[in-house]
Records
---
Amino acid sequence: MKTDLQIAQECTMEPIVSVAAKAGIPEEYLECYGKYKAKISAAYDAELKDRPNGRLILVTAVNPTPAGEGKTTVTIGLTQALQKMGKNAITCLREPSLGPCMGVKGGAAGGGYAQVVPMEDINLHFTGDLHAITTANNLLASMVDNHIQQGNELNIDPRKIAWKRCVDLNDRQLRNVISGLGGKVNGVPREDGFQITVASEIMAIFCLASDLKQLKEMLGRIIVGYTYDDEPVTAKQVGADGAMTVLLKDALQPNLVQTLEHTPAIIHGGPFANIAHGCNSVRATKTALKLADYVVTEAGFGADLGAEKFFDIKCRKAGIRPDAVVLVATIRALKYNGGVAKADLSSENLDALAKGFVNLEKHIENIQKYGVPVVVTLNHFVADTDAEVTYVKERCEGLGATFAVAKVWADGGEGGIPLAEKVLETLETKENNFHVLYEDSLSIEEKVNKICREIYGAGTVNFSAAAKKTLAQIEKLGFGDFPVCIAKTQYSLSDDPKALGRPEGFEVTVKELRISAGAGFIVALLGDIMTMPGLPKQPAALNIDIDEDGNVVGLF
């Protein structure tokens, strides 16, 4: 069997100017990065602003398992299927992070015959957006420390600096460090630390800003630390907002590539959904909605994380609304939730399937709470039996969800036509009453409770002493109307990664609250969640190499 990388390398790509022409983008508005990648110039915005919006389709999934779900693969395959049916469709995805590519997750460009290309470039340095975000983040960090070193006019307390440095790799050694050692000339010694780039508030800002003006304003509002009098100090006060915006100027323009079937694909921004808000950029989505009749996008990890944040953060802030949701599951993942070991997932087991179906059931119910019609799709594996597929179909339809099987990994767009037909039917026949889960007027504590109880199924929500202290600070600073971005494990509806299926009535503790004043939301950390991952015992980097002809091997 061919690997995803081999399939991608066998693709004869079209020049990116030809792909752009399919989307109606004139060549003069492209900034090309070689033959197969381009940025869509900011100058094109003026041409698009008066065009009507297309229909927005969100792809989300059940909680991820070692069995695999294939959310990105289905997103790409659905777009290819719509194109095969003569529809004007574009896919919008996030940019992969080098951390997971070199770590445990592998690449994030789809799989099989539903991929975006050039796959190696997309999974590695791409157009340098993540490097620009890393540099802007670290410029701010260096300017904060330099301000303290050069007299500290703002009276910043070095013990209360909230801004961490970042790097786009998994490196546990950098989670907690001491910086500024070596004498007075080398700075003020203090505790410091790194996050992975995708967890940086700048990544969130980058993905929520609609233009350069808004980007600069949001960057300026970042709280970098506090004074000795406990007053917040912002990036604008430090004087870093202008230079940071300059570093991000080119990166803010969306990236255009293509699928294996030459459908236009916009890939831009890359926050994780377990530690951030998990959606591609607002700018990319809004551009796509002006270019296409159907825009297929995805939100990270399970619907309890990615979809909830897509609805409650991205849609709220961007003023957009989804027209339908595709919820991806696999027979294998449901059986895994039902207690079957990974090695035994290929054997038919209706009892385990029934047991594990509750995870899918909860996600269907959650999406329905937002008033959006949902289409459940099984990402098909060859070991799936007719009896298993029929069981899931009947259960889904009994819950009021439309159902379809997707065979996009094996058959590309052709294998996604049954799903595309159901999506189109849903768009035309099902009522869409989209609304967010909570109103801005609720307190942060009430918002956290609402998400934990209604979306996760928690019974009790506790706040640590540190979190309660921050709650008071949030109210004092006037940020109580912000939405909430919960950071928790992606592997369970709860904050316990081992609690599979549909845990109910469990207790969660908000260990910490962080103010993302620039991005405009409050981050609530549940359980043992870290914003700097580590490498596994056998990192994917061990298998990545290059042959004598310059071809990448072992990627994904």
Note: The first strand starts at residue 30 and ends at 32.
---
Amino acid sequence: MTSSNLLDDPARQPFRPSFPIRSIQDVERLESVPLDQALQVRSTYQIFRNVGAAFGNKTALTFLRSGNPADAPIRWSYAELLAGIHQTANLLYRLGVGPQDAVAVLLPGCLDYHLALWGGEAAGIVQPLNPLLADDKLASLMTVARAKVLIAYGSDAESGMWSKAMRLRGLVPTLATVLRVAPHDEPPGAVGELPAGVLDFRAERAKEASDRLVSARDIAPEDIAAYFHTGGTTGAPKLARHSHGAQVFTAWASVKLQGLTSSDVTINGYPLFHVAGVLPASLSSLSAGVEVIIPTPSLLRNKEVMANYWKLVEKYRPTSLSAVPTVLAALANVPLEGADISSITYCRTGAAVLAPELAARFERQFNLHVHESLGMTEMAGISTITPPGVQGPAGCVGFRLPYSQLRIVALDEHGNASDRDLPPGEHGMVLFKSPNLFSGFLDASDTAKAFTHDGWLATGDLGWMDDQQRLNLTGRSKDLIIRSGHNIDPKVIEDALGAHPSVQLCAAVGAPDAYAGELPVAFATLVPGAAADEAELLAFVSAGVDEAPAKPKWVCLIEHMPVTNVGKIYKPELRSLAACKVVEGLVDAACLALEVAEGARPRVQPEGETAVRVLIDASAVGSEPMAAALKARLDEDIGRLPIKSQVVLA
């Protein structure tokens, strides 16, 4: 093949947009070319070979040492990134990592994370880990994956990572080597001699070839690239397998629908153990030559970064802003103070449905329309995209990806997907088939539960199709509030409550009820400096909810909204709070009836999402007969609730 032909070879090119996507007809136009002709890149490693050759000395990654705009960043070019990926893959190969072996990663936001990710995928199977998980869950995940190497941050400054890494050495039987990543500001030689089985990542990497894969591995699209864990905050996390082909398709489709080019710059504040930070935010951008900014090891949890966000935008001139709704809500409280943010031409969000009031507030304050997308681990991070230039209402997550299929089906009596397709405008569960569908979970039984009997991915998301064939989301099937058999969409309550000018964040859940099963209730946090009481908010939201059964029974103000590590509102904790609040009401009523002194009232403790423990201090109540009578009453009253409960005499 001549050099001129090389320039035209799609297997050797970075990804580029074909034409602006403004309608489903444009998506279908992309599909006019067979997929095997349109996409010939076979692996994530091939993506980095292509962009390394195409962009060379252009900046790929910019790491911010702090949230101070005056501080000088650390920058890596595309050529440096590719060289580091080669060195990392070759180091892992030297350590015995093959295509079937897992490389676990326990790192904060840093440049080395990209070496671990893409070098790990070039050598074997990368396994990004959530550093906030407990030791036993991390060990369980690594043991199931049979992780051979752990690449870990050499400091406890971020979530105690180094101490966790050292403890994991004794908990994971297959773990042979730990590679220590030095913090960016650590002086050379500051640590001294490392324990046996622990190596310095930078020093060992420097010994390796930087221009090729020593293994000469030919990576196939169906080869497994990564294990991403889903869940993990409660219950046993599941490991989803991503193929190289699925990750490559996510990058390619994102570039096509978003129109990404090498002139773009983006700030990636998503954690890199999460699929959103790795694939839609990183791989997609890097596959097109975009400059990706990493805002300090703590990312958007860094208060200085958040306080200076608009000043950082003015300095680094990102062309896009991407963040989950809870982060957008926090940014809405950060004044511009004259900062020039005109470089941003595309603002997007995902992970949770956007509240209409937050969308309106962002547009009002910053003149930025928030475009929504849908992504999930089971579809390599992206399922639908709202392209630049397409403006939809809050909840509209855009068009399906090219070559993918999307259905809306009715729910069965158990809230699961049925076989009955619904027409545009009718609400049901979202199902997908797509080239970036994951390769199943490591546990085959988990895989079976993820799909319908005829092979469609059952997302658990609820939504509907509009007349432009855009998907609109309303929530999750597991978050439906079921009152006496009547399904209540919490988004109806959340949109009404979120419209109150004093409300920063809000969420509706079901509180246990002895007769209805669940009753709708709501939790809210207030905009800093704003004032409102619970009675006022209850009256406001009740006026905004038309359907009587959906009007919440109470609104509870809380100081901080519980969120996951990627910023989603964490409803299991709210359901636990709601269950405790209901039980506390029953405890108060029982104590009042039996004339139990205020200071002797039992303590209510959450025992998970739908379990409560009540502790009665018999000595404080005053007498054993009184304590026994109180326990008997509470056993009866709380026992009527559809939750697990235990009343204990302490």
Note: The CA atoms of residues 370 and 539 lie 29 Å apart.
---
Amino acid sequence: MDAKQKKVLVRILIVSGIFVALLAAEYGDGFAAVGLDAPGKRWILLAVHLIPYLIIGYDILWKAVRNIAHGQVFDENFLMVIATFGAFFVGEYPEAVAVMLFYQTGELFQSYAVGKSRRAISDMLDICPEYANLETDGVLTEVDPDEVEIGSIIVIKPGERVPLDGIIVEGSSLLDTTALTGESVPRTVTAGDEIISGCVNGSGTLRVRVTREFEDSTVAKILELVENASSKKAKTENFITKFAKYYTPLVTVGAVLLAVLPPLVAGEPFGLWLHKACVFLVVSCPCALVISVPLSFFGGIGAASKRGVLVKGSNYLEAMAEVSALVFDKTGTLTKGEFKVAGIYPEGCSEAELLEIAAHGEVYSDHPIGEALREAYGKQVATERVTKAEELPGYGIRVRVDGKRVLLGNEKLMKREGVSYAICEQAGTVVYVATDGAFAGSIVIADSLKVGAKETVDLMRHAGVKEFVMLTGDRQAVAEAVAKELGLTEVCAELLPGDKVSKVEELLNKRKEKEKLAFVGDGINDAPVLTRADIGIAMGKFGSDAAIEAADIVLMDDDVKKIATVVKISRKTLTVVKQNIVFALGVKLLVLLLGAFGMATMWEAVFADVGVSVLAILNAMRVLKMK
């Protein structure tokens, strides 16, 4: 509880004590000993009730006056002031104090709930580093991260937060990425690894070469994303905002008419109808809706952030509840993007001999296929055995290994060089090998599925998503093998980036108005598609720039299962929002009807406003506690 909340709580406790004492004195006839006539007693009662009223409600009075001065007349502060003034006017002093007391109690609950939701997101805001240890000629100086230039060396000591993105040049440690990903298990980093701002260094001292200035760093982009999240409101929030804008003036006019017309037209007692008008004002206050609906969405965004998912606005959270089609990129999204040797098929030689030739042939290649072959070989490659290496774009490599003419590449290379080869039907990238014009065999390089990819598709299908599409630039056979294993409904392979956008647009045209299409990509080469889809979900790669900028939702740790988590959070949030709207309007309508027949007092009105608000706030907070 912060200082402001503590002050309000103290005022509530003080006024509650005074209020109970006043009620005991008044209804226990404790004022009879004063010996005054009825008018004199009334003035004393007014004076003693004004004390707790002003203690508990002076800030509400000030806000109402200030807003009126700025032209913002009709808000909940104005309604509370008018209603309580009316209650004082008709002699209902305890009711006037009670309305303000319970209204402030509701405001305290609201403040606490908002604070709890903000704390769920504040882990993201706490990632901002206060300083960086800049190393200059062996001397460390604490400087503002804004002052560090690209290429500078910074030192990160155990327990310190990483201030800037960079590459480790010396040291190894465990990196706590909880604030970014929601994962409690630290990851090991060592020299040569990329490190991003916002994480916490664990056990070892690290020397890091800075690769991005602070304004372009991961932490700066995440902070900007979180701070701007509340500006993008859901359709339900916008409706409630517009509703309150017109509803409050209408309620005020209705209360005035209710107080004036019956006495003027039917000669009814003015005090009776003024009291009914005050009850009407208190009941009609839109606090429960205006507070609980945004708070529910805010809680949903907070619940997602606790799990390492950044949602750029409540509109995207709301849209996730209506997803009917999920479109995936393949590499880096459904698969790890880590190429491994999946099969070796020699012709006229052993598997070991074929792999040895291929590894030496790719000795100078920095392509993932070359790296996969050398890794599978597992031995030191002798560069002196390799001569005349020549890369053939679109085909492969021509090279001499131990004086033999070696060809490594695709089917087109074999055909161009006139090599008679056996077609490999295995799923994956096939590397055909030939030595001195004779076919030596083929090696299959394949990407493995990400952990949780199959589970994600199953969970989303169970959640009601009907269409699962994969878009990839990979070969048709590879794409179909992955799709079959995951149970996808449609596959589009051998696509260029522009083709992916066209395909997403085609899928969007098939959607009904309330059906949403979400695209999941790695955020680097899929930025155009992420932007075009109804909802762009990026695999964060621990905070890649393209992911954070292009997507509407970012999974900070690449865990595809969290897509299902976001859908669950969004649907829970919308359920809570609908419950609050129905409950608030239902109770208010019931008390208004009772008030019209003279069966509802100011106490029932207070419950219909403050009580409903508190219950709606407590209901909204359930989103934060989702498991």
Note: DSSP finds 20 helices and 22 strands in the chain.
